[in-house]
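new request in #modeling-help
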Amino acid sequence: MEKNSTEQLEAICSQVRRDILRMVHSCQSGHPGASLGCTEFFVALYFDQMTNNPDFNLDGPGEDLFFLSNGHISPVWYSVLARSGYFKTSELKTFRKLNSRLQGHPATEEGLPGIRIASGSLGQGLSVGIGAAFAKKINKDDKTVYVLMGDGEQQEGQIWEAALSAPHHKLDNLIATIDLNGQQIDGPTKDIINLGDLKAKWEAFGWEVIDTEHGNDMSGVVKGLEKAKSLLGKGKPVMNLLHTEMGYGVDFMVGTHKWHGVAPNDEQLENALGQLKETLGDY
Amino acid sequence: MENKLDTKYTYTEKKDTRSGFGDGLLEAGRRNENVVALCADLIGSLKMGAFQKEFPERFFQMGISEANMIGAAAGLTIGGKIPFTGTFANFSTGRVYDQIRQSVAYSEKNVKICASHAGLTLGEDGATHQILEDIGMMKMLPNMTVINPCDYNQTKAATIAIAEHEGPVYLRFGRPKWPIFTPENQEFEIGKAWKMIEGTDVTIFATGHLVWEAVEAEAILRAEGIYVELINIHTIKPLDTEAILKSVAKTGCAVSAEEHQFNGGLNDSIAQTLIRNQPAPLEFIGVDDSFGESGKPEELLEKYGLNAKNIVEAAKKAISRK
């Protein structure tokens, strides 16, 4: 398959953002803020960086695996999975509605292609990624395990059990990313429980740590992921600190925790969609 | 204490059920290369050393990080592994309930949660470690199978059987040396109750260590002319309701016995089964809404009313209520 240009990837981002807003608006619930902020990251992973197969195999032999720990940003994941061929985009309209495979938080029960484990209760995804990375090592499968976490999620104790564990077991086939948007439900993360110097913390735990300074700039995100990949295979897991802006792409949603878990009304949706080009056709 | 009772179930040796787990794990590992094991700093206590030695590349020391261990076990299933986690029952359940709920049970992962030192018979360590709520927590989870074998041989057989069963399992066993009274190399069928003794007057449903107490109780009652039907409920979920109803239809009353709180355990499950199908007098042997304490296993069973003598009394009471 021919590689997508940065412009093509950006065009996909615009459509994914429209999907996020329309999904959340349709059921009047869900989490648009960090979904919008992580759009470049998801598009870069699924349309550029990962070796993955939309003809879904849960065990994923010979492919890169992605785990979403902060499951509440399911809208961006569902959109990207649909847009990359895991299931029909028309299914996005069922998000958070009765009898849907697109549960509020990702789940495996109804067999939605692309989802390998449930998430939503925070703090668990990095441990799961560690287990999947163990399995890849045993199976002599040289592909990579990716995990995305939130920054507020770093307040969960289990994360730090996992932080100790991965370097001890020399899991150099694991790239974890933290979405550093600086916001959580009750306000700015620094005012809730300050995370301090995350780079120093993860380095002290024995990880290779890189910063992706501009997490909403497609070429920056791709470069960051390529840098992270280049550090694999050297005896250490890799941490990618992804600096994003919550609500990116919609002027009245950007940079605030207020849109963490709030759906736009009709007027707000129209305003927001006016800022985002329909590039691949709405579902 | 030598067994001098007149019963077809006797013993010449005592061994801990956790050793049955350790030996079963080694055997399961030899039979299937996808079997892997994780332990939270309790290799000696869980008897996982032989597996670790024979399969070092399939064994993961996770340290005192039980939440991370459960998550990693769930992750290992993605890639076709069959992970067995090992720690004490308290840290296998209550400490990691949400991790099991989301990453294992809801996600339908093929993880085997293997829990030692369950119940009062843990002994001297006291209430902090003597979990009496674990069966309840685990049986409430959809998709979870809950197994509580009674002696070394049954625990070994159960460990081998769960490796071949697809889906999450909670396997509960214990610390003390306990009579070995079931056959070596027995077949273990998950979800199938085992009628150990036929009887007509009262059914005793027992699980775990208390099956031995029930064997002793049956002999005492028989000497008094009371004929007990003894049923070994090694699988609490899925429960063999057919066997339960069939037996109580014959005997007309029952006792259920387990090392667990009244709330949430086997007793609850039996009571629900009877009430919803064919109500009959049922007496509970278990712990009545209290924590345990330090002491020797037999002293604790005596103090909390879980030994053979208590089962005898409960059986007579059940019969009197018919």
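bot summary: The CA atoms of residues 10 and 171 of chain B lie 25 Å apart.
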